[in-house]
């Protein structure tokens, strides 16, 4: 019996998001004694592949998110989170100010992730960097969401409450719309 179309895709995606980074970290950790480089053999080439995929994925995601969110903070633009809240709930002066600050907080988070990752890659053992990008990444994102939610509940009189799935879908839908006008002079 086959699953209904579209029913297994989210579970496969979630599995990939959780398993691939752990697998990458395990390969990097268990091959820590293998030097990187094409001259070192097949093990080194495999390790180099996992390191490259981990680095390019992490840096690409955070550089993209940083760019998109930051571009919406330019003068005359609507911050990305403000635009999302406006579409979902409408805006009050209180939520307009708050959502701009949240967009700035996410920009700082993305920048911190990127800077930390690059610094660890350059100056720490590869296993430490791998642990940061492959194992700590999702918990840090979850912690950022949790902190923002706690602050929102404390700061706003009538805070919007959305599930993480709704928020992620809204970010996915809003990013292409945010990029086009943000890139215009």
Structure description:
The protein has 185 residues and is mostly helical. It has one domain. The protein has six helices and no strands. The chain has helices spanning 8-30, 42-71, 80-89, 93-123, 126-155, 164-183. Helix 3 (80-89) crosses helix 6 (164-183) and helix 4 packs antiparallel against helix 5 (126-155). The N and C termini lie far apart (54 Å). The relative contact order is 0.12. The mean pLDDT is 81.
* Low-pLDDT stretches: none
Largest sheet: number of strands, sense, barrel closure: none
Helix-and-strand structural type: mainly alpha
Q: Tell me, what's the shape? A: elongated
Number of strands: 0
Radius of gyration, in Å, reads 19 Å
Instruction: Give the number of domains.
Output: 1
Instruction: Give the end-to-end Cα distance, rounded to a whole number of Å.
Output: 54 Å
Number of helices: 6
Strand content: under 5%
Order of helices and strands: HHHHHH
> Helix share of residues?
over 70%
- Average pLDDT works out at 81
Features:
185 residues; mainly alpha; 6 helices
Secondary structure blueprint with pairings:
Elements: H1 8-30, H2 42-71, H3 80-89, H4 93-123, H5 126-155, H6 164-183
Helix pairs in contact: 1-2, 1-5, 2-4, 3-4, 3-6, 4-5
Would you kindly provide a brief summary of this structure?
The chain is mostly helical. The protein has six helices and no strands.
């Amino acid at each position: 019996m086959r699953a209904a179309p579209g029913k297994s895709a989210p579970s496969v995606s979630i599995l990939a998001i959780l398993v691939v980074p752990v697998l990458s970290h395990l390969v990097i950790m268990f091959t820590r004694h293998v030097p990187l480089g094409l001259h070192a053999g097949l093990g080194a080439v495999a390790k180099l592949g996992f390191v490259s995929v981990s680095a390019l994925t992490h840096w690409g995601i955070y550089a993209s998110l940083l760019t998109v969110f930051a571009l919406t903070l330019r003068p005359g633009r609507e911050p990305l989170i403000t635009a999302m809240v406006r579409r979902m709930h409408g805006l009050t002066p209180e939520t307009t100010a708050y959502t701009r600050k949240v967009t700035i907080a996410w920009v700082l988070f993305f920048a911190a992730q990127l800077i930390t990752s690059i610094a660890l890659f350059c100056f720490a053992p590869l296993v430490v960097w791998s642990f940061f990008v492959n194992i700590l990444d999702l918990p840090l994102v979850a912690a950022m969401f949790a902190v923002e939610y706690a602050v929102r509940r404390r700061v706003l009189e009538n805070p919007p409450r959305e599930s993480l799935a709704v928020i992620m879908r809204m970010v996915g839908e809003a990013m292409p719309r945010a990029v086009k006008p943000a890139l215009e002079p």
